[in-house]
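My current task is to audit a protein record that another person submitted. Please read both lines and tell me whether the tokens look consistent with the sequence. Do not assume that whoever made the record got everything right. I have pasted the whole thing underneath without changing anything:

===
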Amino acid sequence: MKIITGRIAPAILLVFFAMVAFTATGFSQDLDDVTVSGRVVDSNNAPVVGASVTATLVTTNVERTVVTDEDGRYRIIELQPGLYKIRAAQTGFGTKETTNLATIAGQNVQLDFSLAPGDVRAEQTVTIEADTTAVDVTRTVVGGTITEREIDELPVNSRNPLDLVLTLGGTSEEALSVRDLAEDRNQNPNTPPLEQGNFSLSGGASYSNNITIDGLDNNDDRSSLDRFQPPIDAIAEVQVITNQFSSEYGRASGGRINLRTRAGTNKFRGRAFMYFRDDNLNANSWYNNNRKNMPIPPARPPDTNPLFNRPALTEYNPGFTLSGPVIIPFGEGRSVYNGKNRTFFSVAYEYGNLLDSTLIDTYVPLGSNPRFTLPVSTGGTPTCDQAAIIACTSAVPTAAFVAPYNFQIDTPSLRHALVARVDHKLTRNNDFTIGFQYGTRNDQRSRFPTTTRLDEVRWSNYSAQKTLCKMRG
């Protein structure tokens, strides 16, 4: 009895998790699937009843077939976005096929067929090539889509697929963004508020946007950012809807951004890469060069202020992608299971190691406070914290003298990102997708590219003391 239970339990669990994955995937991705519908008529514009219409995804040869109703209408739903060929056929009529039909997420394609009587001597097939992307006339939305080819060809220095959003119309950086000031030392204001977010769509606030991956939630509501940054090589499409989207998208009053991950195909494909950046290959910013000529106490000759030299920077960014049909064991001709035209996998991994530094440039009080320990000033002329110096020199002072504090600290950023998915055609008209996303991040750089905040001065002083103890140990 124990042996039977041991065999049945894993099978039951496998079926249960497959059903859960299938259900969750269906609910999350319905809004981003493709629908193809239309009407099949004869040369007299009369409906062709019972005609079979087949949609075939070119990259996987996965097919979906439906039959026209009494009005000659058909509707194929929940298709994976991609390149399709659509074929209409009926006994006694010549087959007609439309090829190279490019579709994007959430699109409703209207495609009609007019079948001519077939030649009695031979089967006749008419092929029509779609030379443009199908137009969705069933809905009115404002936005844009960045396709897989554009993702491959557009250079993205940050390796963040969400930065591609800014290439579309109606998008802009958030009004409080400090993106371009990250390397300008002592810039003020220099850090954004927590709710600053990524970008603005149609002038709206970033906390009004909805960011999804394959239709699943990817919002960090505390900071108006994304929770997980997938490898850009794992993304097949970046779709942005700025406004006028239907109510089923829900949640967002600003805009909706969906990242669609890449699926496997009938061909094995893979690539390995490593991107490298170093401060020796960079130029200093104008702001730093201008500040570098200003001497700091103790007085130094011009052009020798090290705090405003070209910032130290080294970045290693390796990764790989691999996709194809599932073949067990690996190798055609001797496999136990060959998943061509049926089961596909795709995996992408990226590692980011950014070695950067931060300049702490602020003022610290010269007085002591036993309940609030601060580092001592690094040098400079003390000034009164109030406009009237008497506030600091009176018998009962209401303010205190403060002095400059400058300190440079290492702020590394380490990141792992893994995206994997398996697509399987379960039955003739049913399929499911299982996706897995994993990411870790230890990003001290995002805490403050440059700062004037006292609490972060305390943190930097603690980190410096901890580093010094390790060096001595």
In short: Residues 1-29, 180-190, 447-473 have pLDDT under 50 and may be disordered. Residues 247 and 289 are 51 Å apart (CA to CA). Residues 139-261 form a domain with the Ferric Hydroxamate Uptake Protein; Chain A, domain 1 fold (CATH 2.170.130.10).
